[in-house]
Every structure is written in C-alpha cells, then in structure tokens.
Specification:
The chain is of the alpha/beta class. Among the domains are: about 5-50, no CATH class; about 340-510, ANL, C-terminal domain (GMP Synthetase, Chain A, domain 3), CATH 3.30.300. About 35% of the residues lie in helices and about 20% in strands. It is built from 16 helices and 23 strands. The protein has helices at about 25-40, 45-50, 75-90, 105-120, 135-140, 150-165, 170-190, 195-215, 235-240, 305-310, 350-360, 385-395, 405, 410-425, 465-470, 470-480; strands at about 5-10, 25, 55-60, 70-75, 95-100, 125, 145, 225, 245-250, 260, 275, 280-285, 290-295, 300, 320-325, 330-335, 340-345, 350, 365-370, 380-385, 440-445, 485-490, 495-510. Strands 19-20-21-23-22 form a 5-stranded mixed β-sheet, sandwiched between helices. A 4-stranded antiparallel β-sheet has the order 12-13-15-16. It has a 3-stranded antiparallel β-sheet with strand order 3-4-14. Helix 3 crosses helix 4 (about 105-120). The radius of gyration is 26 Å and the shape is globular. The termini are far apart.
C-alpha cells in the first residue's frame, strides 16, 4: 500500500512496542486538532469556503445492465436540486421519518435517505440488520418510504400466501373488500368523486382489512411511498394505492440523481412515471428515446470522458437509453429500454419488459423473460417463486424435493399457464402490444441468479446473456417441440460449481382476439 501515509488507532492496548512515526493514537490527533484550532481559528471555515457547489460529492456506480458498470460523478448541486424538487412536489418536511435500509451506494437511497434528509431535516432510521428490516419497518412506521418494485412484489406475495392459509370466511371477506378497493380505492386516495355506497363499503373495508393490512406491512403512517429502479406492473401499483398507500412511481437514473419525473398528488397514473420534475426538461428523440436535461445531470463518468461524450448530446441532453412518449397530459410513459424494444415479424411493436411486469404481478412468478424480436410470435421463460408456488403445492398435497422438481410438476406448469392466459387477455385490450400475446412458454429448471451473470445485482434481466446461454431452449420454443433437455452449470454460495439438468416441458398458451377500439 505505497500511498498509505498514516494509520490512526482508537485502542492503545497492544501498541506499546510500536514506535513507527506513521502510527497515531486518535485521541492525540484530536488534541492536536484542538491546539491547531485555537491557533488558527479561521482554518475550518476557510477550508469549507474552498468547496464549491459544482465539486463532485459522490461517485455511484451504474448497475451494468447495458455493459460494464461506470462510476457516475455527481455534484453537491445536482443532489441538492433533486432533493429540493422532490420536497417541493410532495411537501416533505422535518416531521417525517424514513427507514434507510437500502445500500447508500445506490442512487435511490443516496437521494431519499441522505440528500433529502439534509434538505428537509426529517429523521433517518436504520434497521438493526438485514434480517430485521420488516420488523423494524413495522416498529418505526415511516412516513416516507422508498423501495424498488421487487420489494413491493415480495410484500404482496407474503400477503397472498398468508391469505391462502387463512380460513374460508376470512378469505371471502378479504376478496370482497379487495374488489371494493380495486373499484374505488384509487379514486378515494386521489380525492375524486365516489358514490356514497362505495365510500361506505370502503370505510368498512378500511376498518376490517385495509387498515390492519397497512399495519402488517409497516405502512400505517405512510404519507408518500416511492418505487423506482425498474418498471412496476400496473396491477401491482394499483393494488397498493387501492388500500390507501400513496404509492408513486418516479423515474430517473444514476446519471440524473434518480430525478427526472415525479407524480403529483391527484395526478397519479398506473401506466406512467409522472410529469417532468421541477427544473427538468424532457424531449423524445426521433427513435423514441427519452432525452433529459436539467441541474441533476452527472458531471461525468469517472475516467471515462469517451462515455460522458457519448451519453450527452450537443444540446446538453442526457440520452437515457429508454424508449417512451409523453401522453396528452404531459406524463411520460416508459415502454422499455430503447435497445430492447423490437418488432415482431409482422411489424408490430414488441416491448418485452412491459409483458414481463404483467407476468410478475402473479405471486407465483418471480421472474420472466420474453422473446419475440423478428419472430412470428412471443415465447417466454418463467421462474416460479419457490415460496409462493411451494405453499400452493403443499396445500394440494403435491410433494417436491426442491426448486427443479417443483418447477417440473404438471400441476405447477398448468397453474402458470392460467396466469399467462390472464396476461394475454389483458394484452388483447391494449392495441399497442396486443400482438405480443405469449404463444408458448416453459418453466426454467433453475432460478435466474446474479451469481450466474443472468441478472444484474439490482436484479435486472441480462436479456442478451440469457438468450445466448439458453439458446437451445429458445430454439425448442420456436421449433414447436414439446420438451427439451438441458444441463446448466451453476455457482453455489460457497463458491463451488455444479450442474443442474432437467427435461423441460414446453406448453402452448391460449391467445385472444385483439379488442377493437371504440369509435
């Protein structure tokens, strides 16, 4: 370590025989500092004055979805602008509480737990450990909450599993009031007009179901909750809003301090990410790519001037790499990654991420990967959620020995087929993606894993890598085969490597006629 000049220690035990000049007792250093402060009382203020709002305050790394992770250099001014804009839109103040449980090296937590707390003055609460996050969430009851879609998916899955284990009367009551919530909960939250009968039903549901459910989730005091980092399924998003949780989507990247679009109260849509945030300009390129400009943009990529030049155009707009459009109300709708949006062989648009998020609303589906670019139909890989699917199997007395065995059970495959057909029925009513209904699928024999390079560390699908690794399965889907044998190498937690093999069943799925738009 040739650049190391000093080592400070805080416990002198065992240090008697060490006399190297680079070793320092921290208490002696502190006393030296006090003496220096008495002799040079202006020193600290002068050092502070040397700082500039345009200095780099933090370097955060991208997730590596589109290549190797890059160090994003962000300034003090960029994060302060993002924090002030968010506080302005959602009226955040010093009376709030937030649970800081995500890595601060991730842009989302750096903005919401760190930058916004400095701007607003609210209280940051840290969990005791990763294992106690849910317990701490219920204990603290934060007023502001931020989580990626995966966390909200997991919370909903745990609720659905618990309800399946409940008695018949409780199940009936839950499903009845959830139907009421779906019908009018979002409108009540947005302050819209709702019939007296529905309002009374919702009040009763809040007393019996929604209130206790929010309490179990640790969200009984939530004023505003955010989700970002990946697209969230509209059904999942609407579920939380329907039970009275003011969940909002926001849109941004590491390069924009996670700050591009926000959803103002009363203007929240399930299928958009909101309007441009204060100070942000948005432009849609000819190829559909979303371009953004504002005070929250990165100063540059660390030691990558080439990448910086490639990401910001001549007009100063950052090229997000996402495809989208602005609707009639000025809300941004993200379709997919610009590079992932393709076309079916008939010319219809194919947006895999949009379809995958619809699939992941079902508690039995943990991950999905859709294929269809330049093909005549869409096919899918499915990863089951072993907790939810295992619970479902156990209640039906279906014995299984592990993930691979459970994923291959005929009853599980049939259950997944039912879920996919529901998604197809939904897609048929959306003219933009109606041609992207899934025709064939298989349930993968192993879970997609960051350790096997199939997902990024933020659990985003590495689509091209998966397509190459499982080419034999994709070929089987499109060649009309009924099953395909595969053997895959996996990496275990202790570093050992092994192989998982299975003969996967390939299933045809019902598709629906495309619904015609009303005249």
């Amino acid at each position: 370590m040739p650049s190391l000049e000093h080592i400070a220690y805080d416990d002198p035990r065992g240090m008697r025989h060490y006399n190297q000049p680079f070793l320092h007792d921290v208490h002696e250093l502190m006393e030296m500092g006090r003496i220096h402060d008495r002799n040079h009382s202006d020193f600290l203020n002068e050092e502070v004055e040397k700082g500039h709002f345009d200095d780099v305050s933090v370097m955060l790394y991208t997730s590596g979805t589109t290549g190797k992770p890059k160090g994003v250099c962000q300034t003090h001014a960029a994060f302060i602008a993002a924090a002030q804009g968010g506080a302005q839109v959602d009226n955040l103040g010093a009376d709030g509480d937030i649970l800081s449980y995500l890595p601060m090296a991730w842009v989302g937590d750096h903005l919401f737990s760190f930058a916004q707390s400095l701007v607003c003055g609210f209280t940051i609460n840290c969990p005791e450990s990763g294992e106690t996050v849910m317990t701490d969430l219920r204990e603290i009851g934060p007023t502001n909450y931020f989580a990626p879609p995966r966390v909200f998916e997991s919370l909903l899955t745990s609720v659905q599993i618990r309800m399946e284990d409940a008695g018949q009367f409780k199940q009936k009551m839950f499903h009845h009031f959830m139907a009421v919530a779906k019908r009018c909960g979002g409108s009540i939250l947005d302050g819209k007009t709702v019939s007296t009968a529905d309002r009374f039903q919702y009040w009763l549901g809040n007393l019996l179901i929604y209130g206790p459910l929010r309490n179990v989730l640790g969200m009984s005091r939530i004023k505003v909750a955010y989700t970002a980092g990946a697209a969230i399924g509209p059904e999942l998003f609407s579920f939380y809003r329907s039970i009275g949780i003011n969940l909002k989507q926001l849109y941004g990247q590491t390069e924009t301090c996670a700050y591009v679009c926000l959803q103002p109260d009363g203007q929240v849509k399930a299928d958009t990410v909101g309007q441009p945030a204060p100070g942000v300009e948005i432009k849609i390129a000819d190829n559909g790519e979303v371009l953004v400009r504002g005070p929250m943009l990165l100063k540059g990529y660390y030691k990558r001037p080439d990448a910086t030049a490639e990401s910001i155009n001549a007009e100063g707009y950052f090229m997000t790499g996402d495809a989208g459009f602005l609707d009639e109300d000025g809300h941004l709708k993200i379709i997919d990654r610009a590079k992932d949006v393709g076309k079916l062989s008939n010319g219809a648009m194919f947006a895999p991420n949009y379809i995958e998020n619809k699939l992941k609303f079902f508690q039995f589906v943990k991950e999905a990967v859709c294929f269809g670019h330049d093909r005549d139909m869409v096919c899918a890989f499915i990863n089951i959620d072993v907790g939810a699917a295992g619970n479902w199997a156990e209640r039906r007395n279906i014995a299984y020995s592990g993930y691979t065995d459970l994923a291959g059970k005929a009853q599980v495959i049939e259950m997944i087929k039912t879920c996919i057909e529901e998604v197809n029925a939904s897609l048929a009513h959306d003219s933009m993606v109606a041609d992207s209904q899934i025709h064939r699928f298989l349930v993968l024999h192993k879970e997609l894993d960051p350790d096997d390079d199939e997902l990024t560390r933020t659990r985003k699908v590495r689509r091209n890598f998966i397509a190459e690794k499982y080419k034999v399965l994709i070929d089987a889907l499109y060649e009309g085969k009924g099953n395909q044998y595969i053997e895959t190498e996996v990496k275990f937690e202790d570093g050992r490597r092994g192989k998982v093999s299975a003969d996967l069943k390939i299933v045809d799925v019902k598709t629906f006629p495309i619904a015609k738009k009303a005249a």
